[in-house]
Amino acid sequence: MTSEKFETLEEDFRTLCQDVRTKLARVERSSATEENRGLLREVERDIEDGQATVREMEDECRNAPPTYRAQMNRNVTSIRKELDQIAQNVRRLSTSGDAAQKRTSLLSGRPGADTDSFEAALRGQAAFGTETLSRTSSSIHRSQAVAVETEEIGDNIITDLGSQRESLHRTRDRLVETDQNLSRSRRILRTMYRRVMTNKLILIIVILLEVALLVGIVYWKFFI
């Protein structure tokens, strides 16, 4: 279960990815250079919109309850990988398109080929910089996801420790109660022991009195 906004953002991202794939497929099938450039520029803008959507989803993850945060982070990581793969395809198509145009210009010997080569070099450097930024951003987002999961694990550990502390308190209370019961039992046993010894002593005295009385009767009967 996730937030309604998170689900809406995920659906928007899926729709955006489908549109981007359609445009990339047109680029791969088409040989019109200018049309392909326009489509690639549109795709780059779509990728920027997708990155903004992913950032909003990450904000939703940070504000989500710990119970659902791990699953939401996994979804965001999967979406981030998908977006990086689309960006790599765009760079590949852009590079291949520039290389094809450069070959055509050189073979045709038209003026301005050096200018096109310079622009292609600039685009290559920009693509390399974009790729580097994308890798750095992916690394940062993976680190954030690990930090969020670590925070969730810490929360679970704190909860478990709290439960164990309550269990130890209950065990201590039961031990105190058991010790009190044992003390009362010892006092009762001592009282019972004293009563038994008193009864034995009384019984011995009674027996001795009876023996003395019997001896007196026999002496009086036979010797007096």
TrEMBL record:
| Biased composition range(s): Polar residues | 94-107
Regarding the membrane, this protein is recorded as: Single-pass type IV membrane protein
Query: Residues in domain T-SNARE coiled-coil homology?
Result: 125-192
Q: Which InterPro entries match?
A: GOSR2/Membrin/Bos1, SNARE, T_SNARE_dom, v-SNARE_N_sf, Vesicle_trsprt_v-SNARE_N
Segments for region (Disordered): 94-113
* SUPFAM superfamilies noted in UniProt: SNARE fusion complex, t-snare proteins
Bilayer-crossing regions: 201-222
Family indicated by similarity: Belongs to the VTI1 family.
Tell me which stretches of the chain form a coiled coil. 40-89
Query: Lineage of this protein's species?
Result: Eukaryota, Metazoa, Ecdysozoa, Scalidophora, Priapulida
Q: What is this protein called?
A: Vesicle transport through interaction with t-SNAREs homolog 1B-like
Per UniProt, the keywords (alphabetical) are:
Coiled coil, Membrane, Protein transport, Transmembrane, Transmembrane helix, Transport
- List, alphabetically, the CDD domains matched: SNARE_Vti1b
Where it sits in the cell: the answer is: Endomembrane system
